[in-house]
Specification:
The complex is a heterodimer.
Chain A lengths: L1 H36 L1 E5 L1 H6 L1 H4 L7 H5 L1 E4 L4 E13 L2 E9 L9 E8 L5 E8 L3 H8 L10 E5 L19 E3 L2 E11 L12 E9 L19 E2 L43 H11 L4 H9 L9 E5 L4 E3 L17 E8 L9 H12 L9 E6 L4 E6 L2 H7 L1 H4 L10 H20 L12 H15 L3 E6 L6 E6 L5 E5 L2
Parallel strand pairs in A: 14-15
Antiparallel strand pairs in A: 1-3, 2-3, 3-4, 4-5, 5-6, 6-7, 7-9, 8-9, 9-10, 10-11, 12-13, 12-14, 15-16, 16-17, 17-18, 18-19
Helix pairs in contact in A: 11-12
Chain B lengths: L1 H32 L8 E7 L2 E9 L5 E11 L2 E8 L14 E6 L3 E8 L10 E9 L10 E7 L17 E8 L6
Antiparallel strand pairs in B: 1-2, 1-9, 2-3, 3-4, 3-5, 5-6, 6-7, 7-8, 8-9
Classes of the chains: A alpha+beta, B alpha+beta.
Chain lengths: 496, 183
C-alpha cells in the first residue's frame, strides 16, 4: 500500500511538473537570454557618478561642462556628456560617448569615444570611427545589428587624458616605440562576426602605425612587432547579443603572442547622435527667419482658446495667417514661394500630438510643391501643454508612405499599381489602428502626454514615414529629438 | 489503513482534476481557433428615395474588416444603374483598393477609417473619415439585422479641403445578404 502511495505521489508530481514547466519555458528562456547577453543602457552623468567602478574616476569638472560637453583640444573634438551609453559584460564595461567636431570638418563618419574599463588597470581611451550608410545608421538607431566589416576603425587614444571626463583617470602616454621611433597604433577591423547573433567576436584587426613625435619625457612603453602575428586579435564583445565573456587563450592577460597590445576586450557598439544635426539646423534656420518666432510663441499662448489657430512663413519671409476655426485650412503660399514653416494649435478636444490629417495635409503641400523638405518644419502647440516641431528627414520615405496621395491610380503604369495599393492599404490600416477606430491607440481623451508621445513615435516607426519629431518648450527655444528604440521606449537627444 | 485509503482517494481525485483541467484547456484552445462568420460580413442597404446606398463588408484573415460602398438607382424596389462605386475599375487595369477599413470590438461594433473617393470635384483623391457601424440589438426573431452607420470628419490641417462626404453619414443600414457583390 505504501509503495502504491509513493508511486501515486510520483505520478502526480511528474504530471504537475510537466504542466507547470511547459508554462514557464518562455519566461525561463527570456531571463536566460538577458543574463547571457550582457546589456547596454543609457545613463546620465549623475548616474555615472554612482557607479562603484567609475565614481573614483569622475573629475571635478564644472557643472556646466558636465551638463553639456567637453572639448578636447588635443584631438580637436567635443565629447557629448549628456548621453552616455554603458555597456556591461561580466567584469568588463565601457562607456561610450558621442563625439562631434565643428562644422568645418568635412568628415561624415560617426565617431565615438570609448572609455574601456580594464580590470586592475584603468580606463583606456579609444576612438571608434564608423563609415556607415544612412540605412545602417537607421538600423543602429533601431538597435538592429549591422555587419561592421571594413567599416570600423579603432584608434587607441594614447594622448587622451581621461581626467577631462573622469576624475583620476590617467592613461599614461603609452606610445609605442619601435626602433627608437614613436607611433600611434590604429587598428582597422577587417573581419567581423558581428552579424552572427550571440557570437563572441575575435575579429581580425590590421594595425596601422602612424608616426608621431616622441614625447620629451622618456617612455617606458615599448612595442615589438611580431612578424608571425598575421594581424591582431582584439576580442570585441559583441553588443547587444554577446555570449558571456570567456577568456581567449593567448589574447588576454600577460601571456600569448600579443604582449604589449591592448589585450583586454574592448566593448564597442556604434552610438549615433540621436539628434540629427541636419534637422536641428533646419529648425534653427526656419525659426530664426525674420520675426516669425513671435508668431509661433503667440500661437503657443492661444492654446486655451476654443478654436484652433495657424500661420505659415513663406520662403520670401512673409507670414500668412490661416483661417481660424474648428480646423485650420491652409491658404496656399504666394505663387513662386514655398512654406518654410507651418504652425498650428490643437484645442482642448484634440490630440497632444500631430494628427494623421496633419501629416496628410503636409503630404498634399509637398505634392503641390508648396513646401521644400530641405527647409520645411511644422510646429504644433496644444491645449494639453505640449509643443512639438516636425521635420521631413527622409523625403523618399515620406513620399513612399503617401505614394497613394502623390499619384492617381488611373494614371499609373501597371508596374506601379501594387506600390499604390500597398501604400493605400498600409496608410489606412495604420490610420485605423492609431487614429480612427473606437479602440484607437491615439485617443483625444488621453491626457498622459508622455504615453501619447510614445504611441505616436511607435506609429512613426511602424509607418517608416521618414519624419523626425522634436519636443520643445512654449518659447520654442530648446529642441530635443525624440525617437523610440527597438523596445518602443522613448530616447531623447537635445540639439546642441 | 482507513486513513491511507482516504488519502489515496483524495490523491486520485486531485489527479483526475489536474488531468481534466489540462484536457479542458486544450479543448478551450481548439474552440478559440474555430472561426465563426461575423454578422457584419455581407451586404447592407440604405434606401433613400430613388437611391440605394450599399455597403459590402468582408473579413480579412487577420480578423479585420474591409469593404466598398456604392450608390445605385432605385425605383419601386428595383435596383437600377450605378450612380457611383468606390470600387473603381480603371482602363489601365487597376482596381481601387478597399475604401473601408474596420476593426471589431465587443460592444462597439466595427469602427475605423473610410476613404471617400466618390466626391464631386474630388473624383480621384480619397477623402479620409472615421466610421462606426453597430448592430442594433432587438428582440425580433425574424426581422432583418439592422445597424447604425455613422461617418464623421477627422480633425487636422486642411489642404484643398472639400467639406462633407458623398455618402450617408448617419443612417440605419439593413442587412440583405451574407454574400457580397462589389461590382
Amino acid at each position: 500500500m505504501h509503495r502504491k502511495l509513493k508511486k501515486l505521489w510520483s505520478i502526480l508530481f511528474i504530471t504537475v511538473l510537466a504542466i507547470t514547466s511547459c508554462q514557464k519555458d518562455d519566461t525561463y528562456m527570456h531571463h536566460s537570454n538577458v543574463e547571457s547577453k550582457g546589456f547596454s543602457r543609457t545613463i546620465s552623468y549623475e548616474e555615472l557618478k554612482t557607479m562603484p567602478k567609475a565614481i573614483a574616476m569622475i573629475e571635478e569638472i564644472s557643472e556646466e561642462r558636465r551638463k553639456k560637453s567637453v572639448y578636447n583640444e588635443k584631438y580637436d573634438f567635443t565629447i557629448d556628456t549628456t548621453n552616455i551609453e554603458l555597456f556591461e559584460i561580466g567584469d568588463y564595461h565601457s562607456l561610450t560617448f558621442n563625439v562631434f567636431r565643428d562644422s568645418t570638418s568635412n568628415s561624415t563618419a560617426i565617431e565615438n569615444l570609448i572609455l574601456n574599463w580594464e580590470p586592475y588597470e584603468d580606463y583606456k581611451s579609444f576612438l571608434t570611427t564608423y563609415n556607415l550608410t544612412e540605412s545602417e545608421v537607421d538600423k543602429i538607431k533601431n538597435d538592429e545589428k549591422i555587419d561592421l566589416s571594413g567599416k570600423e576603425i579603432l584608434t587607441h587614444l594614447t594622448k587622451f587624458d581621461t581626467r577631462t571626463i573622469l576624475k583620476s583617470g590617467g592613461n599614461p602616454p603609452n606610445l609605442v616605440q619601435i626602433d627608437g621611433s614613436c607611433y600611434i597604433i590604429t587598428y582597422v577591423r577587417t573581419v567581423s562576426y558581428s552579424d552572427i547573433p550571440g557570437q563572441l567576436e575575435a575579429s581580425v584587426w590590421e594595425e596601422v602605425l602612424e608616426p608621431t613625435p616622441c614625447p620629451e619625457e622618456n617612455t617606458n612603453y615599448t612595442y615589438t612587432l611580431d612578424p608571425n602575428a598575421g594581424g591582431l586579435y582584439i576580442p570585441i564583445l559583441n553588443i547587444p547579443n554577446p555570449e558571456p565573456y570567456i577568456p581567449i587563450p593567448g589574447v588576454t592577460g600577460g601571456g600569448g603572442k600579443n604582449v604589449g597590445s591592448p589585450f583586454n576586450p574592448v566593448i564597442t557598439k556604434p552610438k549615433v547622435m540621436m539628434a540629427s544635426k541636419k534637422e536641428c539646423e533646419k529648425i534653427e534656420d526656419a525659426l530664426s527667419a525674420g520675426n516669425y518666432m513671435e508668431n509661433v510663441t503667440a500661437l503657443a499662448s492661444l492654446i486655451n482658446d476654443p478654436y484652433e489657430f495657424g500661420s505659415g512663413l513663406d520662403s520670401n519671409g512673409n507670414v500668412t495667417l490661416f483661417q481660424t476655426g474648428p480646423d485650420i485650412i491652409i491658404i496656399p503660399p504666394p505663387v513662386g514661394t514655398t512654406y518654410t514653416v507651418v504652425s498650428h494649435t490643437h484645442d482642448s478636444g484634440k490630440l497632444s500630438i500631430f494628427s494623421f490629417s496633419d501629416l496628410e495635409a503636409i503630404a498634399k503641400l509637398l505634392k503641390n510643391e508648396q513646401i521644400d523638405t530641405s527647409t520645411f518644419i511644422a510646429t504644433l502647440s496644444t491645449h494639453k501643454g505640449t509643443h512639438y516641431v516636425l521635420t521631413i528627414s527622409n523625403t523618399t520615405k515620406f513620399k513612399d508612405f503617401f505614394y497613394h496621395k502623390f499619384h492617381y491610380l488611373h494614371e499609373l503604369d501597371l508596374q506601379y499599381h501594387l506600390k499604390y495599393e500597398n501604400s493605400h492599404e498600409k496608410a489606412y490600416n495604420l490610420k485605423k489602428k492609431y487614429y480612427d477606430s473606437k479602440n484607437r491607440l491615439l485617443n483625444e481623451n488621453n491626457v498622459n502626454n508622455e504615453m501619447v508621445l510614445e504611441i505616436f513615435l511607435n506609429f512613426l516607426k511602424e509607418a517608416d514615414i521618414g519624419v523626425s519629431l522634436f519636443e520643445t518648450d512654449e518659447n520654442f527655444e530648446t529642441f530635443t529629438q525624440v525617437q523610440v528604440n527597438r523596445k518602443g521606449e522613448i530616447k531623447r537627444s537635445t540639439c546642441n | 489503513m482507513q486513513l491511507k485509503t482516504n488519502i489515496m482517494k483524495k490523491i486520485y481525485l486531485l489527479y483526475t482534476l489536474v488531468i481534466a483541467f489540462t484536457v479542458l484547456n486544450v479543448k478551450n484552445i481548439n474552440a478559440q481557433q474555430i472561426e465563426l462568420p461575423s454578422p457584419y460580413e455581407g451586404t447592407w442597404h440604405y434606401a433613400n428615395g430613388n437611391e440605394l446606398f450599399i455597403v459590402s463588408l468582408w473579413k480579412e484573415n487577420d480578423g479585420s474588416f474591409e469593404g466598398y460602398y456604392k450608390k445605385m438607382e432605385y425605383n419601386n424596389g428595383t435596383i437600377g444603374n450605378t450612380i457611383f462605386n468606390s470600387r473603381k475599375v480603371y482602363n489601365n487595369g487597376a482596381v481601387f483598393p478597399s475604401t473601408i477599413y474596420g476593426s471589431f470590438y465587443a460592444g462597439n461594433g466595427i469602427s475605423g477609417s473610410i476613404c471617400d473617393n466618390t466626391m464631386e470635384n474630388n473624383p480621384e483623391d480619397c477623402k479620409s473619415g472615421r466610421f462606426e457601424m453597430l448592430i442594433i440589438e432587438d428582440n425580433c426573431g425574424n426581422c432583418p439585422l439592422t445597424a447604425t452607420w455613422k461617418v464623421e470628419e477627422v480633425s487636422g490641417l486642411r489642404v484643398d479641403f472639400i467639406p462633407g462626404f458623398s455618402i450617408p453619414t448617419d443612417v440605419i443600414l439593413t442587412k440583405v445578404s451574407n454574400d457580397i457583390d462589389v461590382d
